[in-house]
Specification:
Blueprint (H helix, E strand, L loop, with lengths): L1 H22 L6 H25 L7 H20 L1 H18 L27 H29 L3 E8 L11 E5 L10 H14 L3 E5 L7 H8 L11 E4 L12 H9 L2 E3 L3 E7 L2 E7 L14 H5 L8 E4 L6 H6 L4 E4 L11 H7 L5 E5 L2 E5 L17 E8 L1
Helix pairs in contact: 1-2, 1-3, 2-3, 3-5, 4-5
Amino acid sequence: MFVLIFLGGGLLAHAYLWWRLVRQTTGPGRLRRALTLCLVLLFATLVATFVGTRMGLESWVAWAGYLWVAVMFYLAVILITLEIPRAVAAAFLRLRSRRSAPVAVPALTGPAPEQPEAPAPEQGLPDRRLFLARTVAVVAGVGALGTVGYGLSSALGDPVIERVRVRLPRLDPRLSGLRFAVVSDVHLGPLTGIGHTERIVRMINGLEADVVAIVGDLVDGSVARLGPLARPLRHLESRYGAFFVTGNHEYFAPEGPGEWIEELGELGVRSLRNERVEIRHQGAVLDLAGVNDVGGASVGDPPDFAKALGGRDTRRSSVLLAHQPIQVSEAARHGVDLQLSGHTHGGQLAPFNLVVGLQQPVVSGLARFGGTQVYVTRGAGFWGPPVRVGAPPEITMLELGS
């Protein structure tokens, strides 16, 4: 269903781009046919890239296809934004044209005076509407390419280190200062190399955290294809260990998340599968729990809050790892003090963050729901287009305070 919706939306976007960028900027002839063919090929590239990567196939068109997704998105956004100014300009040109048109006045008597012959329009001077359409097309093209270029450098650059202090009212004062390195949505896949993982590990180790929390969507493929890209995770350093919970992308592989759970265990990363552990720090205890992603319900591996949090000493503070922010409502019912999540990418491509906000209670940052706080990281990688606009990649250094 998701594939059909995505491809249907892509088809509509290409039809709109053809109307605005081809049909209204060119006349019948070779140029229009060539530009139409170009759009058809770009749509075919998009389909090949998206379907191929979803099927777990390496696609040599992945870079071209995903970059075109980003350019297409911003072309459409800019053109839609310019629709009202364009309509106003077109109305002004029509009004001006009517006012400047000569008005014939019949003579009262005698033969009509000879009218001077109107000067012929200059050869090659484009029609005003054609000129307006081409101007809008150039503005949209330059804006889209500039935005995607900026977003490409952001997505492929170093993640931003966000330092956040979260005060938990029930926290034992001895646990104050406990530090979590939070990372999510690394998305190891066909567009990332081993250097992507090595950089993230190096930056996390530089934080000297007490706990490393990987909150889902680590991979976009099978262990057989992407196992080598994950191996630098064996070098993660922290006082009390590195922990992982599944995201929705871990369930996209035909074999499910089981192979990755086993692989991560061999790399020294413990998966919390609807379970909890005790973090003992300076003589005090914190409950660290993790639940499966909601996407696991479709394959018989759902989140189980009762199993992860049931029977614990409620006088202790608790931190929950849950991939999607939407899980905070259930966390609040179980008395969780702090939930750490990802999934949203902070929107990844502004203004898509406005759409994400319709589906998730928090797009990024810290928020409170009753007695439970949730911190949502923007993620350290990207999904689909290697582009981030308005939502730079992030690794979070989160410190607890009482």
